[in-house]
Automatic annotation (TrEMBL):
Keyword Transferase carried by entry: yes
Lineage start: Eukaryota, Viridiplantae, Streptophyta, Embryophyta, Tracheophyta
Described purpose of this protein according to its UniProt entry: Is involved in the conjugation of reduced glutathione to a wide number of exogenous and endogenous hydrophobic electrophiles.
Domain GST N-terminal: 10-89
Name assigned to this protein: Glutathione S-transferase
Residue span(s) of domain GST C-terminal: 96-219
UniProt GO MF annotations: glutathione transferase activity
Source organism per UniProt: Panicum hallii var. hallii
E.C. code: 2.5.1.18
Annotated Gene Ontology cellular component terms: cytosol
Transferase in keyword set: yes
Family, per entry: Belongs to the GST superfamily.
GO biological process: glutathione metabolic process
Reactions performed catalytically: RX + glutathione = an S-substituted glutathione + a halide anion + H(+)
Amino acid sequence: MEGDKASGCDGLVLINCFVSPYGNRVRIALKRKGLEFEEKPENLAAKSPLLLSSNPVHAKVPVLLVGGKPVCESLVILEFIDEAFPGAGEPLLPAAPCARAHARFWASYVDTKLPECAGRVWRSPKGAAAVEEGKKDLVAVLKTLEAELGAKPYFAGDALGYVDVALVPFAPWFLTYERLGGFSVAAECPALAAWAERCARENGCVAKSLPEPEHVFQFVCGMRKMFGLD
């Protein structure tokens, strides 16, 4: 798979799994910048030697290989792309230091809060107390993000930015959270649900980078079956 246009950036290889919100952040950023890249799909149940050698500390996707040299951790990669290719496309982070710090805070909030409580929803056995507790905490996290979004089209204002790119790859997972947690994101957080739709509708880099929600759900069902959760 390649980005939309070449920009003199030979040697970019993204190691990713198609359902990974973290890897798909990087896909969005590369496409938004118009950078040409190769994508190597990863099977997380049988990790490849390339992944293990590229990220020996965590053995996780994504990894961006730049001329063969690995850059790891998705938020780190986003900032690397912004800094390494300043003339390509629009910047992800704002120019003002305070605004940059603000964006970093909210992206960190996403990674610190959302995956943990969402994981309790989809990784717990049916009927377990952890599912209900995870759902409650997940809705609280989403409401906090919705409050930060406010009436703005995007988190930084009028254009897709760093926090949007950090958060929107979780949107295809909303269906899985809803089905396993017994709630509706659109009912609980209508403005956030509308924001997710806007991100894909108005930004080709988003629409082209995210999996179908049903495919994510089927992937999770397979994982749950493998681990005896259903």
